[in-house]
Amino acid sequence: MSKVFIMDTILRDAHQSQAATRMRTEQMIPVLPALDEIGYYSLEGWGGATFDSCMRYLNEDPWERLRTLRKYLKKTPIQMLLRGQNLLGYRNYADDLVEKVVEKSFENGIGVIRVFDALNDPRNIESSMRAIKKYGGQLRAQDPARGICEAAISYTSGPVYNLEYFVKLAKTYEDMGADNICIKDMANLLLPFDAFELVTALKKALRPETKIHLHTHNTTGTGDMVNLMAIKAGVDIVDTALSPLGNGTSQPATEPLVATLKGTEYDTGIDLEKLIPIAAHFKKVAAELEKEGVLNPKVRQVDVNTLIYQVPGGMLSNLMNQLKKAGKEDKLQEVLAEVPKVRRDCGYPPLVTPSSQIVGTQAVMNVVMGERYKMVPKETRDLFAGKYGQLPMPVDEEAAEKVLKGAPRITYRPADDLEPEYEKLKAEVVSKGYYTQEEDVLSYASFPEVAENFFKWRKAKRDGVDTDLAKTGVYPV
Ligand SMILES: [Mn+2]
């Protein structure tokens, strides 16, 4: 059986990539029962930016969204994305908080957790993986389709990123207990023939029961070909998004792949007819998001910049914005030439959040100042000092001297410096009068200001003290 499984990202990455993560729960509910009947491997519905966006823009409790999804999705596992030790936020959290987030995610309805680290440092996901195995294991004992631990490799290109590198990392994650290995190509840098080679190598190296799951985008227009070549090489699961929010910066569309594989040995088993009414619903949702101004139809166009410059699309637009602010738009080509040099100096990190911003900002500064590392932000210093984790290659010592100026480096796991923090954060939430559930502490830990604004709004709405305020949603900014 070489049946290909599909994870549909319509409830998470599709609208995160195309519409600033603004799809509301009420826009999902009408088709959840139908989505549950399709036969997807999983539906990605939580994690990533949804957590932030729910509270910041939509006046929604992300945990309540998860519980609602679970109420309707009785058969299909809900998949989430977890940023390793950074959890659902952007800083390193202590291990007690990592455990709590994983425990509560499963408890509220998650079935599969995809965990990754931007630098591919296994130490940054070991604590999450331990918790996923512990709480997921309990879930799995009752239902083998749930409680799955999926460890993701941040895919990137560059001199150290050869087959040997990826296979070694995948085997490390498998040995740490991963049920699935995901190739996470968030910037659509993976090319179709490379995908074939990579999946072939992973299939050969990993245990037969380990599933390989491919995540790509269609930003550069290669996404469908990447998926198809990976399928030819034996990939188990691929990510697609229903057509109204598919393609472009999002995942390749679901329907064309289902049709392509129909009747072949890779048949997904999905009935195309059943997708039609669901797609019709999301077409209306996409039109609503476009009307709100959060979806610009331009995101569906093929953008070849990544193919030419080897930098992710989002990073390129950041560079152009930074240069514009400095009034140095004419320096773009110099900055694009400086990016790979800075990347080499700091040990070739994959260019994903946060390293893409750090490398990009430093490259802009080096060019604008007319001298390399004359101006160095704290983030660059921390990256060189090992505070984001171990870099794939040694740093350039000459550059490190200029950047660190004698500041200490660490070689241990960055989170080893952190004291337990759950009880302290809980006390803060309680003393401010916002505590209604343990999950509130985790929301507050992830985005303190955003969560506090949301709690204020929620309290006002519940107590009816200021219903106008509650209605206008003036608090969340
Ligand atoms: Mn993605």
Summarize the structure.
Helix content is 49%, strand content 9%. The chain has helices spanning 13-18, 25-28, 32-36, 50-57, 62-72, 95-108, 123-142, 163-175, 192-205, 223-232, 254-261, 272-291, 305-309, 313-325, 332-345, 355-369, 378-384, 397-404, 422-431, 438-446, 448-463, 467-472, and strands at residues 5-8, 42-47, 78-82, 110-116, 148-154, 180-184, 211-215, 237-240.
Can you give a write-up of this model?
The protein is an alpha/beta fold. It contains 22 helices and eight strands. It has helices at residues 13-18, 25-28, 32-36, 50-57, 62-72, 95-108, 123-142, 163-175, 192-205, 223-232, 254-261, 272-291, 305-309, 313-325, 332-345, 355-369, 378-384, 397-404, 422-431, 438-446, 448-463, 467-472, and strands spanning 5-8, 42-47, 78-82, 110-116, 148-154, 180-184, 211-215, 237-240. It has an eight-stranded parallel beta barrel with strand order 1-2-3-4-5-6-7-8, surrounded by six helices. Helix 9 runs parallel beside helix 10 (223-232) and helix 14 (313-325) packs parallel to helix 16. The longest helix has 20 residues, at 123-142. The relative contact order is 0.12. The model has no long low-confidence stretch (mean pLDDT 94). The protein binds manganese (II) ion (MN). Manganese (II) ion is lined by residues 13, 186, 215, 217.
Order of helices and strands: EHHHEHHEHEHEHEHEHEHHHHHHHHHHHH
Mean pLDDT figure: 94
Strand order of the largest sheet: 1-2-3-4-5-6-7-8
Number of strands: 8
Ligand inventory:
manganese (II) ion
**Radius of gyration, rounded?**
22 Å
Question: Could you describe the largest sheet, including whether it forms a barrel?
Answer: 8 strands, parallel, barrel
The portion of residues forming beta strands comes to 5-15%
